[in-house]
Amino acid sequence: MDTPALFAGGRLCLDFINTACMRRGVEIEFISDGEELMRWLRMAEEVTGTQLCDQREYREGMLSQAIELRGALHDLVHSAIEQRPPSAESLQTVNGILRAAPAYSQIGYERQGFQESHGNSRPEDQWRMAIAADAVDLLCHSDLSLLRQCECPSCVRVFYDTTKNHKRRWCVEKCGSAPKAAAYYRRKVAKAAEAHSKIVEPAAGDALNAGDLRLQ
């Protein structure tokens, strides 16, 4: 897995959506089986610092749950980008996960004073709850005008633009290099065609003048 490309979304929920993407027009699936899903969750923990999964082994049904959640989040995020209402089914899927969250607070004490911690009585579902909660925070409490889809024609990744001037257009630099290269090639071809036309035009004029001389 290409870690920078996999986690270019800037948010946990966007990175999760981007586990299904396209490269040069070909669909790419990064969590096609349970082993890949667990690998992605471990990588996401390291990159985002969010605790997602206590268990280290794949549990039956996790992959189908992941695909269902990803599809719902894809619809919600793209509805925000396209400024359209999301489907009721997508909202129901995410809300169902959040409703089942058996989270609770715990109080502790250390040298600096009281400390609050959070527990979960269903750690096997913690990864889904964390991703769904991140989506709620993004869609309800963030500037949705900064939510974008990569402008590379062959890419479908989404990202949250946190750059200083908010002019980010591509998910990764590689996606930006392809349009730049294509534009450079078009300019080069146009310049060559223009130069060729300037060479051909005088030659045609010379031929016309030679014809006039013969007629005389």
UniProtKB/TrEMBL annotation:
Looking up InterPro entries in the UniProt record yields: ABATE, ABATE_dom_sf, Znf_CGNR
Pfam name, any one: zf-CGNR
| Stretches assigned to the Zinc finger CGNR domain | 147-188
The leader peptide range reads none
Q: Which residues cross the membrane?
A: none
Q: Which Gene3D superfamilies does its entry note?
A: Jann2411-like domain
Report the protein name in the record: Zinc finger CGNR domain-containing protein
Phylogenetic placement of the source organism: Bacteria, Bacillati, Armatimonadota, Armatimonadia, Capsulimonadales
